Amino acid sequence: MRWAVLAALLAACSQPGPDFTVALGESSVSAPAGGTATLSLTLTPRGGFTGNVDLTLEARDGTQAPAGLSLSPTTVGLTSGSTTQTLTLRVGGSVAVGTYPLRVRATAGSLSSTADFTLTVGASPGFEINVSPNSLSVRQGGSATLELTVTPQNGFGGSVNLALEQRDGSPVPSRLTYTPTSVTVNANPTRVFLTLNAATDLAPGPYRLRLRASQGSLTRTADFDLTVEASARVSLTVVDGSRRGYAVAYQVGTGGWRTFEPNTDHIYVFDLGAATTYGVAVRCGSGSETQIFIIQAHYRELPNPRVVCSTLTPTLVNYSVEVDVSSVMVDGSVVEGDAVTVHDWQGGSNRGVVPLDGRVTVPLSLPQGSRDLLVTVGTPGNALPKLARALRSVDVRNGATDSWELKASDIEPAYKVTVGYPAGCTPLFSVVYWLSRDNQGGGLVGATTLADPYDYRSVAGNGPGDRYLALAVARNDTGNAILGVKGSGVAMNLSLHLPPPWSTAPVFTDEAHPYVQGLSYSHSDLYAYYLDLTGPSLNYRITITRRWLGGGDEYKVPNLAATLGYTPFAPGDTITTSVEALLSPNDPPPLTFSFRDLATVMADTEVYAVEYRGTYTVR
After folding, report:
1. Which domain of life is it from (predicted)?
2. Secondary structure in 3-state letters for 91-157
3. Looking at domain 126-229, which CATH architecture does it have?
């Protein structure tokens, strides 16, 4: 009996009290800063334990868990049998990227149990944005395109809202709109093109803008500058000094042609709106002397086109210039028998021969009034003058004679001209003219018909606005010309490099208003084509710029017969054609220049023309 009682007491003392164990289904989890991770917690009771168990998060060494980390729920109830609970581990946005050894402690009164795990904190999902270009422009009534790239980071994705604002945070004007207003981002960088639309009444000027991209509380911005330009305006001037009569039409973009009523100012202005290209057409004269001038260009290339139908023929008076070269005959620089030439750019030049006393009177027929003239002295038959001098503000009067004395100090140095000719081309000639600032006085100061470098004489009295014009002309084996001209405001060694001829001939269809195919002259300096079509009683002169053509190589001569009032080419007419590829290193290109009027050469002008001539018969 005594032994039975003792055995029962010992058995009772060896029974464990109520307790529990804790285990985690994961040994490691990861989450981004600002994100969450989940843990699977299993509580197993022992010895009949029941009740609530408190859960806390701590570092594995038993110290407090790093700031920004929290666990939920914090209490789990045990009734009977094991209980599995999903825990949410929240990682604050301020938690640093890294690896954290942690544990979950489960406590119920004096009972406690722990389970270890490792948390890896990575970077938060996010995105970056970039816009290109950083600066762009748009005209009133037009639109511009901005490229936006959204680059996701750390698994970011979803819809990103886009908002446009001024850089100081204020709203953009309501007359400036944009599309789209959102972009969907997947795993890879996403590119989208934003269209910025400027209303016709949006105030011109610079706008410092910011594109804001956001998803929830995550926001990124990118700055750019937008310049709103006033709507382009084209101003056409028509010169008709001898009153041949003319009619005018214009085209905005690729729209229809409209007419202007002729006015006494001979200036015709029109707005392009959102367009960037235009056309103008002028019929000069009528009947058998009809000319049609057409210019089709980009407004930035030529905002103020000019068409010359005719010039006023001035009334000429008899006027003489007495040139005294006696002081430069002393040292033999000028000798008896040399030629003295007084040059007028508009054709009133004449010459005289130096007599023994050195006083030469040269009679001229010139427009009355003040004008500059050029005097040269040289050996007859020699294109290089011994000296050249500008005569300034000569007062031309009917029946008058004025005297000018040339001195040894008027003998200026000679400079060289070098011309590079393409293979297979024959030099025809090269000349240097001097032209005064008023485009009145001017003439030859050097010339050659050879390919070798040659000299030209600098002009005494050359000043601002005056210029030297070096012109070279060659012809290839098919008889087509290649021309080059180069201007300079000061005397210096000059060089021209004529480009090669056409490799493939342009072709005209056999129509009254033909297509021109093969406008494909290859050269980086190409800026325009000039077309000349001449029939029995009608002549077209057409300028088409490279920017107007875009990437095309075909042009259709517009049918403006009804619009401008002229009779087009007729079936059976033989049409002589010329296509000139115009080249220039100048930026912007000199679209106001014409080889038919060298007075349009400025001091910095350099232009080349490559001609191709042909014929066709209208069917």
Report:
1. Bacteria
2. ECCCCCCEEEEEEEEEEECCEEEEEEEEEEEECCCEEEEEEECCEEEEECCCEEEEEEEEEEECCCC
3. Sandwich (2.60)
The partner residues of 356 in beta bridges, in order of sequence, read none
List, in sequence order, every beta strand (DSSP E) within 449-520: 454-457, 467-475, 481-488, 494-497, 507-508, 515-517
Return the CATH number of 19-122, one of 3.20.20.70, 3.30.2350.10, 2.60.40.3880, 3.40.109.10.
Answer: 2.60.40.3880
User: pTM (2 decimals)?
Assistant: 0.70
How confident is the model over 85-144, as pLDDT tens digits?
A: 999 999 988 899 999 999 999 999 999 999 999 999 988 888 999 999 999 999 888 889
**Token code pair at residue 88:** 């949410």
Q: What are phi and psi of 326, to 5 degrees?
A: -60, -35
pLDDT, tens digit, 9 for 90 and up, residues 407-463: 999 999 999 999 999 999 999 999 999 999 999 999 999 999 999 999 999 999 999
Specify whether the CB–CB gap between 208 and 162 falls below 8 A: no
Copy the structure tokens of residue 21: 């164990």
Q: Centre a 10 Å sphere on the Cβ of residue 465 and count the other Cβ atoms it contains.
A: 14
> 566: pLDDT confidence band, cut at 50, 70 and 90?
very high
CA dist list (Å): 240 to 266, 312, 367: 8, 8, 19
Q: Distance between CA atoms of 295 and 594, rounded to whole angstroms?
A: 13
Q: Which helix (H) or strand (E) holds 549?
A: helix 546-549
Domain boundaries, the chain: 19-122, 126-229, 233-312+502-581, 316-409
Segment 32-47, tens digit of pLDDT: 888 899 999 999 999 8
Token pair of 454, please? Answer: 């040659």
Q: Which residue has the tokens 């031309």?
A: 396
Q: Does domain 316-409 have CATH number 3.40.50.261?
A: no
Which residues, in sequence order, are CB contacts of 437 under 8 Å at separation 6+? 372, 463, 464, 465, 466
Q: How far apart are CA 108 and CA 232, in angstroms?
A: 83
315 within 8 A of 280, measured Cβ to Cβ:
no
Contact 391, 441 (CB under 8 A): yes
Does the fold of domain 126-229 match that of domain 19-122?
yes
